[in-house]
Amino acid sequence: MKAAAALREPSRWRAWEGAAWLAMAAAPFVFASQGALISEIAIFALFALSLDLVLGYAGIVSLGHAAYFGVGAYGAALFAKGVMPDPLVGLAVGTALAAVLGLATSPMIVRGSDLTRLMVTMGVAGVLLELANRFENITGGADGLQGVVIGPLLGRWDFDLGGQVAARYALAVLFAAFLLLRRVVHSPLGLSLRALRDNRLRLAAIGLSVQRRLAAAYTLGAALAGAAGALLAQTTGFVSLDVFEFHRSADVLLALVIGGTGWLWGGLVGAIAFKVLHDLVSALTPEYWTFWIGAFLVLLMRVGRERMLRPWTWWARR
């Protein structure tokens, strides 16, 4: 009984978690003029969660996670333009397309060294970028896919210019994804993924399939990245080649550096911190905002995430 209770303990909700989600749910009402920013943060946080599952729990390094983000974005946008504008169906289509791509590319990802994975993931994103640029009659090419009109959410709420509906929609999807991932990482699959990340040979020695677990985690991470891309297309009404660019993958990786990997809240905290910092710094110094964000990351790595909250200990001996 004690062992079972100890295993269940990490999956229990804490009071601060509920308070944090209530605060996020209230954000579109409290900061009514910042609907677009809240929506952007929620989408970026979902993207960060998808990479955290792949990197933080499964230990799969990736510099091309934007491939699945872009597929979800273009899939949802093309579906809205060519089939039907329902946002929930479009979200499902974008998520499914990214999941299929993740499953198809997973055999190349689960084998080989970390360097091989870095190159393969970057290569997949690069190939998709060039394909989207080549078939401009479908994707719009360098001009982007414009005129994406999304229907009312649940047939009742139209997407407004202030971004209020978009912000609530993105936060609702983020919460649903968080609940799903919370269930997954505390399941036997999640526990085996962490064991695999720490010692792959030991997991294989006890008879568990390493490649199947990695493929399952990678496919789920790709699906959630596709959902984030679909949300971006639906809430902005526009998709460009930018969704496949390297900086998308790099930015979400930086968010995990800030918030921490292997902890679902790390993706959320990192995404919020990165986007808020980016918004504030770029408003103060539009030309040099990358310098200040870079300086912050250097300071974070030099001082440490925990000690950043206690600046009086920076010069103390470790």
Features:
318 residues, 15 helices, ABC transporter involved in vitamin B12 uptake, BtuC, mainly alpha, single chain
**Shape assignment:** globular
- As a whole number of angstroms, the C-alpha radius of gyration is 20 Å
Parts with pLDDT < 50 across at least 5 consecutive residues: none
Beta-strand fraction estimate: under 5%
Would you tell me which CATH topology of the largest domain applies? ABC transporter involved in vitamin B12 uptake, BtuC
Tell me the number of helical segments per DSSP (H or I, 4 or more residues long): 15
Question: Helices and strands, in N-to-C order?
Answer: HHHHHHHHHHHHHHH
Question: What is the terminal-to-terminal distance?
Answer: 39 Å
Query: What is the number of strand segments?
Result: 0
What is the second-level CATH architecture of the largest domain?
A: Orthogonal Bundle
* Class from secondary-structure proportions: mainly alpha
The largest sheet, given as strand count, sense and whether it forms a barrel, is: none
Mean pLDDT: 82
CATH class type of the largest domain: Mainly Alpha
Helicity, as a percent range: over 70%
What's the number of structural domains? 2
3D architecture notes:
By secondary structure, the chain is mainly α. It folds into 2 domains: 31-283, ABC transporter involved in vitamin B12 uptake, BtuC (Orthogonal Bundle); 285-318, no CATH class. The chain contains 15 helices and no strands. It has helices at residues 2-8, 15-30, 35-57, 66-82, 87-110, 114-134, 136-139, 164-185, 188-198, 200-205, 210-236, 246-259, 264-284, 289-303, 305-308. Helix 3 (35-57) crosses helix 12 and helix 5 (87-110) crosses helix 6. It is globular, with a radius of gyration of 20 Å. It starts with a helix and ends in a 10-residue tail after the last helix.
